[in-house]
Request: fold
Amino acid sequence: MHLSGEYRGGRPRTPGTVGELGEFGLIRELTSRLNTTPAVQIGPGDDAAVVSAPDRRVVATTDILLEGRHFRRDWSTAYDVGRKAVAENLADIAAMGAVPTSLLLGLVVPAELPANWPMELMDGIRDEAQVASAAVVGGDVVRGATITVSITALGDLRNRKPVTRSGARPGDTVAVTGWLGWSAAGHAVLSRGFRSPRAFVEAHRRPEPPYHAGPAAAELGATAMTDVSDGLVADLGHIAESSNVRIDLRSADLDVPAQMSDIGQAVGVDPLHWVLTGGEDHALVATFPSTAKLPARWRKIGRVLAPGTPPRVTVDGRPWERSGGWDHFAAGSDSDGS
Reply:
């Protein structure tokens, strides 16, 4: 797993608070940290942005991070939060088989927040967007009691059909690329007051979706695809329901690193539970025709079966009965704010 390293900051710290900067001063400071891409025809500074859409279709998604619910400032830096906010949105774009192009930021911050916090947040947003060759093209800032980061991401299909959740067919192969369970293991470590093993903690703070793998899978015939944001079983459940199929996973094909097993033993959790139900890794999972050659770095983990009643996901032929996966409105379903 690639680690981005600690953020050191490339600019002098912005003194004072957000309230002292004021709305327009904050916007000026934030936009001064941005870069652009060839897809951006008009960027920040006008009433709206203009982004080229060669395909004449735009793939769009949005997500929200709320302090105390999705991140904690004692666990993650502002830069970490920026990287994470972008990653979870651009993973959705990639999961449709599209190439990310641009982002819009909605930011709510308290007036007393140190002014350097949103600056480092924007640096993280910019840098993660750059990983996927996208750019921030606009947004809005509002004063509020709780830090809230809302990202809207746009993408381009480049003349391909979108890869939806509804295309899986009996006989297809189920495959995954990226990391599974790492963020959940990192959350378990942080919840107990530790900061190592660092690789798992960093996976929770800054997920690293395989953006390039989505368009590549679409090009090679993926029939259905999604990113693993709510947990592997839960997200494959969406594909099973939308496609009216059953999906069976083979536990022996799921990667459980030795260090994850060590963490599980230390905290009394079966690490396979994290792999199957842990959210926020933003790996990509897809179904392919059985005759298709899997793209590089994809690994087979299961198969698509004929419809059941109701459509469901099984592990080694049996339902995975243990609870898990993210549901924002379920009782006890907390993330960083737990």
